[in-house]
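Take one protein record:
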Amino acid sequence: MLVFDTICALATPPYPSALALVRLSGPEAFAVFSQLTRRKDMEPGRAYLTNLYEDRERDETYIDQAVVVLSKGPRSYTGFDSVDFSIHGSPLVAERLLKALEGKGARRAERGEFSAQAYYNGKMDLLKAQGINDLIHATSRRAMELANRTLSGDNSRSVEELKKKVLALIAQLEYYVEDQYSDEKDDYDQALEKAARTIEQEILCWQKTLSGTKRNNRAYQGIQVAIVGEPNVGKSTLLNALLEEDKAIVSSRPGTTRDVVEGTREINEIQFVFKDTAGIRKSDDEIENIGIAKSFKTIQDADLVLLASDTGFSSLSQEEELSKVLEGKRVLKVATKKDLGVPTQGADVVLSSLEGDLSSLIEKMFSSLDLTQKEESSFLGKREERYLETIVSELSAARKAVEETRQIDIVSDTLRQVVATINELLGADEGKTMEDIYQTLFSSFCLGK
């Protein structure tokens, strides 16, 4: 990516539709556009209806009639001069316009390059840029809500506030650096104790934010739920009930499900991906064993495991390989055939998959996944989660430095690393090249954004 290039792209899906949007942005955007139209009276900030030509001097090069909006930088999305073309939604028309723009000096944009221009021109920080991408790819109402919260700017303000506190703390500590060798030992110790209290408060605050961010990420990405158990215990019937459709084949014959069958459903504004797995048992059937191996892999990747049984759970607890893979996983034991009066010892939830009353199961799922809380964090994304983990770790290291070294210069150096991490999170770290930032963040965007 070269942010000073003038770039163009189709900003709507490349399918036939009523309308399509083509975006042009860069230092030469207005000069490029002027070569496609005969109108001379257009000003930024207004919409105009105009004919577009590959060569404005030749009628036979007519492309389309478009509604055009000019935006003058820096008062535009990208910070550069930009032009948005609303054209008829034929992919052929859009492609012809893009080729005409290329012929006049623009180039095709890469993924996320318009947002990269906006970042370079100070129109957004990396947290807001990620929020835009998250909003575009949201697949549930909760995901959309979370993405909109990241766009509010609250997360940027909160880390900026932390940075101010840490910088103020460093300044206060530096004042006492020389006192560690003087007679003013009481003031020196008081400064360290005050710093320790402040750091401890921030650790507690950001640990809470980190926990909320992890919940946000689970809710945004969709919850992976594996339905597991022995053959013929109602796993496929349970999947169909959860999805409210006949997704999986239901049969009394053991081993019917030999591959992972999955479906998605939004429940209470959160997307769940339910996966019905092959029955866990010893088998001499090569194909069935492949399916069972996939079952174990599905368990490893799941956020929640529904361990289904119609005979109680004692035999499943003796399955050594299953017990091992379930270690550390969130597991709900589900007795699936309440209507038949089968044993339910050890079950967390008792229901009839066939009758389909799953309210108690859904309530337990939300409780187990800690999805009932919403407001602890406005951060979203694995990148943000990793940086928050680093910030908490570095704050903890500063607190430890106070306790173990009693050396203000060591504590200050540790706190400086917190500031550096915050700068990286916001995209302000001078040690990273612009190209690194583009490749790691903006490459996940869609074209036209």
In short: The CA atoms of residues 267 and 362 lie 8 Å apart. Residues 185-221 form the longest helix (37 residues). The radius of gyration is 29 Å.
